[in-house]
Write a structure and sequence with these properties.
38% of the residues lie in helices and 25% in strands. It is of the alpha+beta class. The longest helix is centred in the first third of the chain and has 27 residues, at 54-80. The protein starts with a helix and ends with a strand.
Length: 440
Amino acid sequence: MYSEARNAEFIERVKSCEKYKEDYKRLMELALEGGVVYDGKMVPFTYQPLLISEKDNDAFKYIVTRTNEIIRKVVAKYLEDEEFRKLFGFSKELEDLILHDPGYEIPVPIGRYDVFYNNIVDFKFCEINTDGSSAMSEDSGLASIFKESEIFKDLELDGWNFRNYELYDSWVVKSLEIYERAKGKKDKINVAIVDFKDSGTPTDFEIFKNSYIDHGANCIIANIEELVYDENKNKLILGDYEIDMVYRRAVTSEIIEKIDMVEDFIKAYYNDAFISIGSFRSQIAHNKRFFKVLHHDTADFLDGEDRLFIENHVPYTDLFDGDEMKLSEIKNDRNRYIFKPNDLRGGHGVYVGSELSDDEFDEMAKKCYNNDYIFQEYVDKKLIDFVELKDDEWVDVKRANMIGLFSYNEAFKGVYARFGVDNIIGSIREYICAPAFRYE
């Protein structure tokens, strides 16, 4: 990263003073008390943030902007071309939801684009999350704790200036702008943050709810299964609460899986009883077949600049299906690839080819071949130096990065950064988070 020299300076400062060991332990207690958790466990972190230079920040803006330009073109092609739609393999129920006009033109109002990053030239995508994009609380929660750290106080006295990314109010403002453009100005709209019971991120939801209220809206957090469609009023309701806008955190795959349980929500959506942000069109880019389509099926409508961006930054991807000859070719070249299900999260169901013996590959293929999997170019690690406390001593560790770039209304808004020592970076294996701070 462009901030490598400043990162090294930060590490040396940490090592120079014994008091930072106790301060790190204090921060861990604050994180636990403050509810900085994922899946019921404290989010793991070291005594080091991700430092982002202005050049890094500009690179992130570029990546998000170019990605959204390409997504727009692919979504437009999907809407107009019946044959093109077949490439994604969506069910009839999902295809119909995607084709329904949501009332606004932005295909991905909110997303998180995960990249392995060195600089504006040397980066590659891991995946694109445009459906129920989350993890704001991990970055914001850790950032608020780091602001109270001794190392930050000392460095600010020396002239360092740290600024974290704001991820809540900025999204609330952007989502309300979408509603206003779609439905016109309304003094006080009724917002519902919607997910399935026990599937959401309660910390995120409460902060977003309070922010909507602070920005002049009413807001509730609602279980999607409990929502009712009032046909006479053409309103989606919960009790006496008539919903104008849904911030949809319920992921599409779970909605399709449980579609019989959410019939009222679906009916209300088709009858334009509310504005849903995001719409189901976000699933086009979210599905991992999107990368396959970019590489194989877009030559007739993407321009040369788009093609170069894809070639340089989107890992080669294809469907993990076909005949025995194709399977044999993939097996013989498996060290080049990683194998992923089309729509699971957190690294679940992912296999790294170089980690598998012949027998293990064969066993994996029995479960996954011709079963909605993709195989993808394995991207070499992009490494960042970290300092970590082990046995009460500071040690240097090189960690591979995965930088999640938040996109709000197609503009870069912030970062969710994870780092690992393994071939997969995520909650399924060892990893840490680091709050992102721009510095001057």
